[in-house]
Design goal:
single chain, 399 residues, alpha+beta, Butyryl-Coa Dehydrogenase, subunit A, domain 1, Butyryl-CoA Dehydrogenase, subunit A, domain 2, Butyryl-CoA Dehydrogenase, subunit A, domain 3, 3 domains, seven-stranded mixed β-sheet, 9 strands, globular, binds flavin-adenine dinucleotide
């Protein structure tokens, strides 16, 4: 495979600290050496290379911005650059790290008790325990606040009932962070009845089953599941005590969306680099196709959009570290960067002509993956409407 050249048209390298470069380069090197050689076979088989999980943990990609508990405690730029490099490999690889770190570990970090953090976070940072984040249900995707999953209070805990859909790592997780509405019997504070709370549900809990979703034509190198809870008894200690209301899962989703805004730049860079290299070597009409104006226009457009996406992500990271990033800033970056990455993947496929559909090249795989990334963690249109609400003060997405 020809050597990858990352996009840095506006010399953002100059703004990075030595630590940020080190974090990025370690993941970049690992992805090249260990992941890219095996991704096509896993994509075909619909499997994830589980044997690489300890190496991912060594790189510090699980919960990189969490402080303490064996996590790297990195700043937002370093954490973002790590996601970029993972997704240059495959969106499924970045998804694996996002589900583990930004969703499951972040939920425990933000809403767990000290004891829960000590039990789970160090093991999850090491990849010896895996987590998943179960919010979406068969009938509630863009509108998760309507969820039907119920946690009925009992004398010594809860009884969990309901189903979850599209749960990343759901079949391999040791613990599921399950979002459910608390239902009262005796002992429930009437104020918390009906409130959405997070619960740690361990695998092998009687009544808890998971099944792989088959037939995905996107994110094939990632495991996605349905979960079912059939009157599942969980102890009172399973509750994440600081969780309460829809804002709790949304805080975790913000973290994951931030990672996506960076991650998809990696996928876009992979596609741009592949298209550029191909255009320089593929000869038609006795000259490299890169010499034709239409091909140059496509490459120029890709380079421009990737550069704009990098600037957006970089500034978002600064706002995040300053504590001034708001959910609508993250919505804009997630929405825009996924869209330009998807365009870059489609354009790269076009520039590669017929061979662009083969899995010996990367662009078609990235293109298929990015269709999912456009939909999950809030669809493109829902993020547009988040911005619409910010502009007008009128929420167009709700009843
Ligand atoms: C591969 C994959 C992995 C996932 N991983 C997870 C996970 O780990 N955990 C988890 O909890 N969830 C996960 N999800 C779920 C994901 O977040 C949802 O698919 C997403 O929120 C969209 O929900 P939906 O698929 O039900 O689409 P719907 O909500 O049914 O939307 C369908 C279409 O209607 C549009 N739409 C909906 N409401 C409005 C509105 N008010 N105004 C305008 N348009 C609207 C949407 O934009 C979309 O185009 C995953 C999904 C996928 C595909």
């Amino acid at each position: 495979m020809p050597k990858f050249e990352a996009v840095d048209f506006y010399n953002l390298e100059e703004l990075l600290t030595a630590d940020e470069r080190r974090a990025r380069d370690a993941v970049r090197h690992w992805v090249e050496e260990r992941f890219l050689p095996v991704v096509a076979q896993h994509y075909r088989a619909g499997t994830f290379p589980m044997e690489l999980v300890p190496e991912l943990a060594q790189l510090g990609v699980f919960g990189p911005s969490i402080k303490g508990y064996g996590c790297a405690g990195l700043g937002s730029i370093a954490a973002g650059l790590m996601m970029q490099e993972l997704e240059r490999g495959d969106s499924g690889l970045r998804t694996f790290a996002s589900v583990q770190g930004s969703l499951a570990m972040m939920a425990i970090n933000l809403f767990g008790s000290e004891e829960q953090k000590k039990i789970w976070l160090p093991a999850m940072a090491q990849g010896t325990k895996l987590g998943c984040f179960a919010l979406t249900e068969p009938d509630f995707g863009s509108n998760p606040g309507g969820l039907r999953c119920r946690a009925r209070k009992t004398a010594d805990g809860y009884r969990l009932s309901g189903a979850k859909k599209w749960i990343g790592n759901g079949t391999i997780a040791d613990v599921a962070i399950v979002w459910a509405k608390v239902e009262g019997e005796a002992g429930v504070d009437p104020e918390s009845a009906g409130a959405i709370r997070g619960f740690l549900v361990e695998k092998n809990t009687p009544g808890f089953t998971s099944a792989l979703i088959e037939g995905k034509l996107s994110l094939r190198a990632a495991l996605t599941a349905t979960l079912e809870f059939d009157d599942c008894a969980i102890p009172a200690s399973a509750l994440l005590p600081q969780s309460g209301g829809m804002k709790s899962p949304l805080l975790c989703l913000n973290q994951a969306r931030y990672g996506i805004a960076w991650g998809v730049i990696g996928a876009a860079m992979a596609c741009y680099d592949e298209a550029r290299q191909y255009a320089m070597s593929r000869v038609q009409f006795d000259r490299p196709i890169g010499g034709f104006q239409l091909v140059q226009a496509k490459l120029a457009r890709m380079l421009t959009e990737i550069t704009k996406a990098q600037l957006l992500a970089h500034r978002l990271a600064q706002l995040k570290d300053a504590g001034t990033a708001r959910h609508y800033h993250i919505s804009m970056a997630k929405m825009n960067n996924v869209e330009i990455a998807l365009d870059a993947a489609r354009t790269a496929r076009d520039i590669l002509g017929g061979v662009g559909i083969l899995d010996e090249h990367q662009c078609f795989r990235h293109m298929c993956n990015l269709e999912s990334v456009k939909t999950y963690e809030g669809t493109h249109d829902i993020h547009l409407l988040v911005l619409g609400e910010q502009i007008t003060g009128m929420p167009a997405f709700a009843g």
